[in-house]
Model the fold of this input.
Amino acid sequence: MNTLLLLGIEFLAIGTFSVGGGLATVPFLLSMSQRRGWFSPEELTSMVALSQSVPGPIGINLASYTGYTVSGLPGVIVAALALSLPAFITIVFLSKMIRKLRGNRNFEAVFYGLRAASVGLIAAVLLSFCLSTFVTLEGGLLIYWKSLLVFAVIGLCLFLPRIKKLPIPIFLLTAALLGILLRLGET
Amino acid sequence: MHRNLQLYFTLAKISAVSFGGGYAVLPILQREVVEKKGWVTTEDLTDISAIAQCTPGVIIVNAATYVGAQCGGSVGALFATLGVLTPPMIIMSLVGAFLWPYLQNPWVQHALAGLQACVCALILHAVVKLFRSSVVDLPSFFLFSASLLLSFFTSVSPVILVLSAGFAGLGISRIKGRGEVRPS
Done:
C-alpha cells in the first residue's frame, strides 16, 4: 500500500486512541517503528528529545517529524492532519453539547469535580517536570541550583504586577539567555 | 481582521511560542485568549483541560478546537486547529532539513536548559490561577489532592481519575443538596 496512506491511517489511529497529551503518543510510535520499520527505536528516542527542544506542542512536533522522516513534506502534512482529526471531530461535537448544558445543575456538579481533578493532574505534571529539571539522583541527591535560580526569577516575575503583563516569549527568551549565561546545560 | 483569521493567527502564535507539552501551553492560552481576546473564560479553559484529559488526541488541538468552536462555530474551530498545526509543521520540516546537527551544540543545550526551568515556572503560574478558580471548598480540595497524589505516585490512568472526579462532583452536589456548586 502507498506509504502516505499507511502513514495517515497510523496517525488517525494514534489520534483516536492516545489519551492525555503529546507524550501519550510515544508508545504508539514505538509500536509503529517495530511494525513498519520506518525508523528504529533509537531514532525515536532522539525524535522525542528533539520535539521537546524546539518550540511547539510535543505531540504535533513528533508527528510532523515522523512524517518528515517517513516521506518528506507530504508526510508532515498527512501525519499532523491525521493526528489532529479525531480530536477535532470529538471537540466540535462536545463543544455544542457543552453550550447547551451550561447552567444545568448536574452538568455543573460533574464539572466541579472534573476541574478540581484536572488542576491536580496538572500539578502532578508540574511536580515531575520540576523533579527532572532541578534534581538528579545519580550518585546521591544533587540539586541543580542554577536551574532553580532561573525558575525562581521567572516565577517571581510572573507574579509581579506590571512585569507579569509582558508577552510570554520575553520570559522564554530571558530564560534562554540566563541559561546561556549560567551555563545551565553543564551537569 | 476577520474573526476566523484572527483565530488562525492567534492560535498559530500560541503554538509557535509554546515549549513542552499541552500543559505548558495553558498559561499562554490563558494570557492570549482569556485575558487579551476574551474569547473564552478561565472556567472554559479549565473545563477543556479536564475534557482533554479524557478525550483522544493532543491537548493543544483539543483546546484550540474548543476555543475556535466557542467563538466561531465549526469553521472557527477549523481555523483555530489549522493555526495550531501550522508552526510545528513548518518548524519540524526545517529541523528535519537543516537544524539537526546544531542541537548538540553546547550553547543550544544551555539555552534549552534555561527554557526548561522557565516552562516549570509557567506551569506553576497556571496551576496557581486554575487552583484559585477551581478549588473553591473542602471537597474540591480533597479531589484536587487525591488526583495530584494518585497521578504522581501511581500509574492510574488520568482518564479514570478525571471520570471518577466527575462522578464525585455529582455525589458531592447531591449531599450538599444545593445547585450552586460553581463559584461565580
About this structure: Residues 3-101 of chain A form one domain.
